[in-house]
Amino acid sequence: MRVAIAGAGAVGRSIALELVENSHQVMLIERDLANVQPETVEAAEWVHADACELASLEEAGLERCDVVIAATGDDKVNLVVSLLAKTEFAVRRVVARVNDPRNEWLFGENWGVDVAVSTPRLLAALVEEAVAVGDLVRLLTFRQGQANLVEVTLPTSTPLAGKPVRSLRLPPDSALVAILRGGRVIVPQGDEGLEPGDELLFVATTAVEEEIRAALGH
């Protein structure tokens, strides 16, 4: 994929390094000249420009990008970048960083955001995930589709132990997308047996989360 990242601070550069390592084409757009440090992500294309200016984005060729990530430390900037990317350049996927949780309600389809990532919310979810064995934990919200990435860790007393994945009676608008087990990522197959301690990752709408709990015997 070709990915544009607005904001080349510590967060933007870290994302760029990960994407480059996974063989994606990355363009970093940074307004502050002090943060334009090509040596930190040598494989990326660097653009010294204001990502809130339409002309700068046109010159950078944003319309050729598959994904735009608004990763600055300013929520106002991230919203403007997201809106321009979606409405002016028809970028297929727009991901935005939420710095202040009080602004999280703004980061939706009205501002062109497909996925909003709130660091405080994510950290809180990870803390919950570490202690909430047997309960459903919401890890990430996909705003435009109103779907969530949720996780459930099967307890030692789970009635599903030894049963195949196909035995799960999941509700509509939900899908089991991965099983994490002992450091492994398992793609769910019908014959795959479930084990205590398995971390099950689902994509589901909020409305069916209680039905997922019921399907897992909680």
TrEMBL record:
InterPro entries: K_uptake_TrkA, NAD(P)-bd_dom_sf, RCK_C, RCK_C_sf, RCK_N, Trk_Ktr_HKT_K-transport. Residues 1-117 form the RCK N-terminal domain. Gene3D superfamilies: NAD(P)-binding Rossmann-like Domain, Regulator of K+ conductance, C-terminal domain. One of its GO terms (biological process) is monoatomic ion transmembrane transport. Keywords: Ion channel, Ion transport, NAD, Potassium, Potassium transport, Transport. Residues 137-218 form the RCK C-terminal domain. Signal peptide: none annotated. It comes from the Bacteria. This is Trk system potassium uptake protein TrkA. It comes from Pseudonocardia benzenivorans. The lineage of its organism: Bacteria, Bacillati, Actinomycetota, Actinomycetes, Pseudonocardiales.
